[in-house]
Write a structure and sequence with these properties.
By secondary structure, this protein is mostly helical. The chain has one domain. Helices cover 76% and strands 0% of the residues. It contains 2 helices and no strands. The longest helix is centred in the C-terminal third of the chain and has 34 residues, at 41-74. The radius of gyration is 17 Å and the shape is extended. The two termini are 32 Å apart.
Length: 78
Amino acid sequence: MAIKIPYRYRTLLFALIMSASTALIVSGVIIYLRLQPHVDFIKVWLGAFITAWPIVFVAILIIAPLVNKLLNLIVEDH
């Protein structure tokens, strides 16, 4: 049986995984579209990702609860 992380860390882990995924995808796409293809693409991409990830992480921690409250107001209960 696998050891699971306590539930109290669920929101933090959600923000960590979601922000990493989002920052990786968005930084990669933007750099690919903005730069001419070259050998340093991965280096530039990872540099942009390292900058973007903490910003997206904090944004998700702040915005997700607000979005959930808004959705609770406008979406029917099941």
